[in-house]
């Protein structure tokens, strides 16, 4: 049976025959990283079979395949979220497509609210683990035993070490912490943030967790970096907004860009 992933790969393969190594998913306001791609093949999601188009502003909805720092990468500029349709598996086809194009690594980025007073807007945080608060899972309904995906080492230790090393060599301060997935689209309440802190979360956001689960399902090594756009609800008294997310994400994006570039350069050399 031909699947949407097969059809997506066929379309992309009609434009490029390169073997890709790293899939990069760009979150809200982080689209500038896509500008690093050399020799790009650009395809709008709406033209790729099975690719969901995000209606969230500040998401470009474009696949860009090419080279960054000598490494063949497929950049997904923009992602669809669970809250857009109620489908936790909304990113299944794009992630499966990355794997089918040869990627072994999935590097995800997102905008997030910080629970750490010492990590504020404009900072970046390497995700060490996650808490899935939503009770939703992209593998619900998957009929095979492949659904029982181990999540103990979901955030790959080797890639994390490489990213931390890259940040250090770039002179970029990158904290580490646990990311908690809230469904959104409303932001959290102060009481929910107090609970999140008590439960061990360091940042909160509306994405990434289902994609990491899907990434592990497809056998990809996963890593994620959050760009902090705000202190989480109740920490400052200010109301949260998507406008703030869009305004502040590009500040962290500049740091993110340096870390990703250095990581890819180091990876090429090793
Ligand atoms: N909560 C959830 N998602 C977010 C936040 C937040 O505070 N900031 C950016 N994305």
Concise summary:
31% of the residues lie in helices and 25% in strands. The chain has helices spanning 4-13, 82-85, 92-100, 157-170, 190-199, 209-217, 242-269; strands spanning 22-26, 38-44, 62-68, 71-77, 105-114, 124-132, 174-181, 203-205, 221-231.
Structure description:
This protein is an alpha/beta fold. 31% of the residues lie in helices and 25% in strands. The protein has a 5-stranded mixed beta barrel with strand order 5-8-7-6-9, surrounded by 4 helices. Helix 1 (4-13) crosses helix 3. The longest helix is centred in the C-terminal third of the chain and has 28 residues, at 242-269. It is globular, with a radius of gyration of 17 Å. It starts with a helix and ends with a helix. The relative contact order is 0.21. Hypoxanthine (HPA) is lined by residues 111-113, 182, 187-188, 204-206, 229-230, 232, 240, 245.
β-sheet strand percentage: 15-25%
Structural class: alpha/beta
Could you tell me which ligands this complex binds, including any ions or cofactors? Answer: hypoxanthine
Oligomer: single chain
- Low-pLDDT runs of 5+ residues are none
- Output the helix-strand order: HEEEEHHEEHEHEHEH
What key attributes describe this structure?
270 residues; globular; alpha/beta; binds hypoxanthine
Question: Helix and strand layout, with pairings?
Answer:
Layout: H1 4-13, E1 22-26, E2 38-44, E3 62-68, E4 71-77, H2 82-85, H3 92-100, E5 105-114, E6 124-132, H4 157-170, E7 174-181, H5 190-199, E8 203-205, H6 209-217, E9 221-231, H7 242-269
Parallel strand pairs: 1-4, 1-5, 5-9, 6-7, 7-8
Antiparallel strand pairs: 2-3, 3-4, 5-8, 6-9
Helix pairs in contact: 1-3, 4-7
The structure holds hypoxanthine.
């Amino acid at each position: 049976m031909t699947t949407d992933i097969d059809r997506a790969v066929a379309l992309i393969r009609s434009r490029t025959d390169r073997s890709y190594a790293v899939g990069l998913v760009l979150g809200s306001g982080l689209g500038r990283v896509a500008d690093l791609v050399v020799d790009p093949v650009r395809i709008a999601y709406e033209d790729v079979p099975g690719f969901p188009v995000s209606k969230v502003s500040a998401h470009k909805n474009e696949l860009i395949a090419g080279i960054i720092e000598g490494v063949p990468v497929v950049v997904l500029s923009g992602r669809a979220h669970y809250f857009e349709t109620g489908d936790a598996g909304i990113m299944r086809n794009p992630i499966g497509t990355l794997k089918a194009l040869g990627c072994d690594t999935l590097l995800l980025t997102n905008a997030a609210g910080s629970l750490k007073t010492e990590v504020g807007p404009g900072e970046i945080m390497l995700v060490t683990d996650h808490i899935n608060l939503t009770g939703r899972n992209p593998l619900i309904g998957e009929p095979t035993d492949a659904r029982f995906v181990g999540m103990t080492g979901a955030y790959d230790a080797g890639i994390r070490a490489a990213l931390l090393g890259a940040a250090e060599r770039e002179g970029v301060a990158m904290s580490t912490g646990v990311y908690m997935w809230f469904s959104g689209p409303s932001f959290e309440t102060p009481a929910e943030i107090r609970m999140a802190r008590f439960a061990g979360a360091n940042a909160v956001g509306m994405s990434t967790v289902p994609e990491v689960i899907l990434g592990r399902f497809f056998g990809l090594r996963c890593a994620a970096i959050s760009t902090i756009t705000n202190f989480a609800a109740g920490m400052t008294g200010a109301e949260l907004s998507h406008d703030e997310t869009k305004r502040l994400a590009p500040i962290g994006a500049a740091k993110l860009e340096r870390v990703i570039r250095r990581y890819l350069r180091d990876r090429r050399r090793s």
